[in-house]
Design goal:
mainly alpha
Length: 114
């Protein structure tokens, strides 16, 4: 009884056998085998889930088109050269009605946005 007052274990406490579950035994054996094989022991606790990203085919296509648009100048060089030659030769003619129509169309678009 004196040993219980001093918070020391009873004399027969050293004879108690620690009980291990089957799962704990298996985990301990796996870690031992991995150490012997030179491998890093795998953690026995479940690992936290990691975030993942999945890109749809449509998003991939959009990225390709955007990259293509960013790399191109948007200028039809063949058409520019054709117009330059026509101007130099004095053959370039301006359709004033079409030009006026497009100017009005452009201005109306600007005013709609503001």
């Amino acid at each position: 009884m004196v040993s219980q007052i001093n918070n020391t274990p009873p004399a027969n406490a050293g004879n108690q056998v620690k009980k291990e579950t089957v799962e704990q035994t298996n985990q301990r054996q796996q870690v031992t085998q991995q150490k012997q094989a030179g491998a890093t022991p795998q953690p026995t606790a479940p690992q936290a889930k990691q975030d993942s990203v999945s890109i749809t085919p449509q998003a991939k296509q959009m990225a390709r088109l955007q990259e293509k648009a960013n790399n191109s100048t948007g200028i039809d060089q063949e058409k520019v050269e054709k117009i330059k030659r026509a101007i130099a030769d004095g053959k370039y003619q301006i359709n004033v009605e079409q030009l006026a129509k497009r100017i009005m169309q452009f201005e109306s678009e600007i005013f709609r946005k503001n």
